[in-house]
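Hi R.,

Here's the chain you asked about this morning:
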Amino acid sequence: MPRKLLIVEDDENISELLSLYTEREGFETKIAPDGEAALRLFKSFAPDIVLLDVMLPKLDGWGVLREIRSESKVPVLMLTAKGETADKVSGLSMGADDYIVKPFEMKEVIARIHAVLRRSGGEEEKPKKLTFDNLVIDMESFEMIVAGKKTDAPPKELELLYFLASSPNRVYTRDQLLDEVWGFDYFGDSRTVDVHIKRLREKLEGASDKWSLKTVWGVGYKFELK
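And the predicted structure, written out as tokens:
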């Protein structure tokens, strides 16, 4: 079952963007444009995590957080334009699990969501070492072992392989891979992904018939387990 995420944000552009990127991460999302709608949806939707803006119509984020904490320990990540230390301390002391100041990068929000879920026990941390038939990807030592032999791979090649292999059989577009591996602030050509995949295939060729780096034509790439 997908994890459920409630976005409480009155700026439609921001809420739609948050929804788009978190759904790409596998979350089921719902959006509340004001504090009162947030509390109604919190009860009916029963989210696993809440992204909560402070400045809201009808009932502000502090009031929403207070009501949520009166009945639930569900993780709450505050989103706000207020960056003063006092506001951060206030939010955290009221029971917020994290605090992000606008403007923010989506990659940071996604990373913080996963970190908060891991801390709360709502998400297992990905292992740093992945093992398949004749392939070991070790992100602690930054090593790739193919058919028992250590194989040199630049960091980005290794990060790309690790990211794909962490979710076997899931297809990612080139743009998604650029976002996740190179970062949202990377402005390079999507052919960068093709070049790295080509180099990885050369290093992995013939290692096993139980997995492969597969091209899904018209879409992107996946690490396929057979």
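The first strand starts at residue 4 and ends at 8.

Let me know if you need anything else.
M.
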